[in-house]
Design brief:
Elements (H helix, E strand, L loop, with lengths): L1 H13 L14 H9 L8 E4 H10 L11 E16 L8 H10 L5 E4 L2 H14 L4 E4 L3 H9 L5 E5 H9 L4 E5 L14 H4 L7 E9 L4 H14 L3 H10 L2 E2 L4 H21 L6
Parallel strand pairs: 3-4, 3-5
Antiparallel strand pairs: 1-7, 2-5, 2-6, 2-7, 2-8
Helix pairs in contact: 1-9, 1-10, 3-11
Length: 277
Amino acid sequence: MVARAFAKAIGDLRAQPVVVDNKAGANGIIAVQAALQAPADGLTLLLGSNSALSSNAALLRNLPYDPVRDFSPIGVTGRAPCVVIVSPKSPYASLKDLLADARRRPGALNFGSASPSYALYSEWMSELAGIRANNIPYKGTTEVMTAIAGQQLDYAVVDATAAQELIRSGRLRALAVTDEKRMPAIAAVPTSAEAGLPALQAYSWTAFAVSAKTPVATVQALEALVAKAGQSHDVADLFERTSITPMMTNGAAMRRFQVEEIARWKRLAVAAKLVQD
């Protein structure tokens, strides 16, 4: 959705069509390889998620690319918070209830993860809260939410945008939004700070990047183009509807953000034994 909104905005600015080529699979690696194999002329941009541009570097020992070395950053576009969810039948009425029980019974609780990135978010919560729980991996967010609703898991950290309708309908209970402010769509759900764990600020995010072989002048022109597209009605409307917070950083700020995230995830992945070959 973000790619389509930016494609329309960039197309309008450049008076030429912009094609969105979805390359799903392998936690973003297929899309990354397609972008790196294209000519480094600034005409092919990667719109990658935090998986492709940060957490893969921590989770995969033999990653076939380097998200820092192989790409020139254009800028982060926006971020969406996560949400800690439980079943509406769960005994946990608050995040404090959940964490208190987890501390009383180390290793007794199970959490679901829709991808290795979400496993990292949950492990980060465990580290911050001083708890120990078991990761149960699933193939996607929908499966995790179904398992939570069916009480097959004790809790999960999932993308808030994906979960908000089930929360609003009462099919899931949300204990905290991992953001510094509440989400308008689920305004009754407290922030991490309000729930007692202020350091837990976990987001899914998207960003533009191009091959590191792209000429510097071209990269700078793309930075300006993407920044202008980010101010368009189409992008602003999408972000508002989906509760995405605009970030619209430049390339330098994106690189600092990216390097900081990779360092955090590498430390957690090693500690939680999540690194894969």
